[in-house]
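User: Hi! I'm working on a homework problem where we have to compare a predicted structure to a textbook description. Could you give me the structure for the chain below?
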Amino acid sequence: MTADTRSTSAAAALEVKGRIDRALAGFLDDRLDELNRLDDGSAFESLRPYVLSGGKRIRPILCYWGWRGAGGADRDEVVRAAAALELFHSFALIHDDIMDGSDIRRGRPAMHRRLAALHTESGWNGDPDAFGVSAAILFGDLLLVWADELLYTSGVDPARLRAARPVYDRMRAEAICGQYLDVAETAKGAPSVARSMRVVGYKAARYTVEHPLVLGGVMAGGGERLLAAYSAFGRPLGEAFQLRDDLLGVFGDPGVTGKSNLDDLREGKPTVLMAYAVEHATLAQRALINRLHGAADLDDSAARDLRAVLDETGAHAAVEDMIEVRGRHALTALRAAPLTEDARQALTALTDAALWRQS
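Assistant: Happy to help. Predicted structure tokens:
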């Protein structure tokens, strides 16, 4: 792909993102107007900036190009249908931050922290933190419901939506089961690369890339050969995307990523990065990992010690290699895929951005 083609494809992706944002804003405006009649709106209004501020919209953008790659025309209906995936993703992020005890999301307070602050500022009764968690769980559930509503009222042909329903259901179930596997692996301790990769596959890889692409393809009436090509492209790219996310969670700049680079270490998250370090550590290094990984009071100095071990054991470099290998596999599958050329160019540009992103 030439530099001019990359620039054009990147511009197309940005244009789609803007349309998705407008679809989300319009839907949220309608729903929040209704909710403001139930409450003074101060709590429900926190949903608007949470969904609309920040975020790469990678899932809805991929769904859109899955549709276009199958020959689907550029229509507002598919933009609205694709935007539903962002509502589902926002639901997942709200619940994920509660489970991880994360205070920051996209450079702003996580939803449960926003709502705890609202409780304090309003002088309400009870424990602000308990209120924040309870209300955030409900707000996440509300976004889950709204995702379905936006998808099924998008205007896409009802027959095509019925055909896509199994893909949508599988995506949601796998994402939730993958989150459970993540929680369970954290509780079990002693991570392994194989088990951590299983979490990556279920929690993130298929949900982030493969299923959105296939969903768009099915809605456009794509054939089995194209859908298989989407899976062959999407699965390794989704794995690479999550592996990059794991690296940024430890080595990233919080000012760029919008989230702490201590949370994954404090939580003891069983990433492939950490599992590789454990499997290749010396006795002294393993003792340091056991002492610091998962320590709730981990500070910057201790985090530097952990990062040093991740470098010394080769874990950091190994995960970079895994990302590169999966990126090559994804691009090979994309070049052979029977899709429209504009979609191929857009997906190539998105692959480059996903593999080497800094946020």
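For your comparison, note the following. The CA atoms of residues 21 and 52 lie 7 Å apart. The first strand starts at residue 104 and ends at 105. Good luck with the assignment!
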